[in-house]
Every structure is written in structure tokens, then in C-alpha cells.
Amino acid sequence: MRHRAQRTVPIFVALGLLFPGAASVRAADQEIDRLLQNPVAKDWVTNGGNMTNQRYSTLKQIDTTNVKQLKGAWMARLKGSGLGGKYSLEATPLVKDGIMYMVTGNDDVFALDAKTGQILWEHWSGIGQQISTVCCGWLNRGLGMGEGMLFLGQLDANVVALDIKTGKEVWRRR
Fold this sequence. Notes:
Blueprint: H1 2-18, H2 22-25, H3 30-37, E1 87-89, E2 94-96, E3 99-103, E4 109-113, E5 119-123, E6 138-140, E7 144-146, E8 149-153, E9 159-163, E10 169-173
Parallel strand pairs: 1-6
Antiparallel strand pairs: 2-3, 3-4, 4-5, 7-8, 8-9, 9-10
């Protein structure tokens, strides 16, 4: 085990020397970076809530005295996206500034008002439904957030960046 660690350290040092700009990428969006480093409060900006994937919020509205009183506040149908046997939902919604961002198994993205469930904008992936080389069904494991954009990897081998306020495509890379 010790031998493996001795080999790993030089590899990371070499990668750091080859890609010196990689460390600065993390701080490109200082607000998101700050939210990722701290315990989750009202914003849930990554899968698991923060960098340590604790899935814990510091909010105090729900506790052992009132948890039994919880009930659904709203439900959204997402206009039928990802509805069908071949689709799967395995993503955690992201929440920032009262807006919930959700991706479906068809790689369609929706922004919803977190209090009412009203759809604020939608982005349809346009993925050809004839793709059949999928081993485990059509699914998306979630969105990334930063620099005013949402990022998603699509089943058609594209990575797409969307403007977080409008849902308009900013860029797409194969």
C-alpha cells in the first residue's frame, strides 16, 4: 500500500506542473466555490449539497417536533419529459436563489420556482430517440452549476452549457 502512495504523489505533482491553470478553475465562480465549501443552507448547488456530499442542511424549519406534519406543497409534470419505461431519474435537483433546476432522463432541463413549482424556463435536448446503444437505460445523473451556467452531459456524447437565467444554450461540445 505504501508503495502505491509513493507512486501516486509524483503523478499528481507532474499533473500540476503540466496543467498549472487547473487549480485556478476552481475559484472561477467565487460564490459557487464558497457555497460548495460550507454547510448547506438555502441553496443546494451540487449533488449531495456540498463538496463532502453530506446531504445535510443547516436550515432549522424542520425538526423532530414538526416533521410528522410535512406534506407535499406542489407537483410538476415537466411536460412529459422523460416519461416512459426507457427513462430513469437519478438526479438531485439543484436550488439557487429560490429556483430549482431539474434534468430528466431525456436530458431536458427545467427551471422551476421552488415555492410554487411553476416552470420558469425549459431546455429540450433534441436527442434522437432512436439511440439504442445504451446499456442501462436513458438517465442523467444531474447538473453542474457555476459561472452563471448549468452544465450537463447528454446521452448523445455532448456536453452543454445553459444560461442559468434563461435556459438558452451558451455552448455545446462533442
